[in-house]
């Protein structure tokens, strides 16, 4: 069983490494590499953002094996959407950890934010993520272009874990 903890300021390099992993960049909606300065600004902001939850998962030896992030947006005092994203350390992929991170992460998210629906946006060709989210109880809801960039359309599959 994996343990988890909230991300801390000294995790900035760990998250930077995970964010710039070539496979992670390839499956991201914006696949450009992230500069360290940009990452530090983003990470520092997320740690203090009440609408962000960053969890680091560790194995039984205390090694960080991946992260799950939740971000929620609001409209007129009601939660509009909670989005999940995750990454697994390159040395830990293929071990079936993604489902466990998703399930444990969603449980923590709901302990803190209540019975919220959780949305995952996945590139259609990211079969490993599709499989992991389906195994964790998420269901395909739609396909959309939420993460389109100027001059580049990027479709995404929307998977939802209902309340």
What is the annotated CATH architecture?
3-Layer(aba) Sandwich
Helix content range: 25-40%
What is the C-level CATH assignment? Alpha Beta
Please report the distance between the alpha carbons of the first and last residues. Answer: 24 Å
CATH superfamily: Gcn5-related N-acetyltransferase (GNAT)
In terms of per-residue confidence, which ranges show pLDDT below 50 for 5 or more consecutive residues? none
Order of helices and strands: EHHHEEEHEHEE
CATH topology label: Aminopeptidase
Approximate strand percentage: 25-35%
Let me know the average pLDDT: 87
Lateral arrangement of strands in the main beta sheet: 1-2-3-4-5-7-6
Classify the secondary structure makeup into a structural class.
Answer: alpha+beta
Give a quick rundown of the structure.
The protein has 163 residues and is an alpha+beta fold.
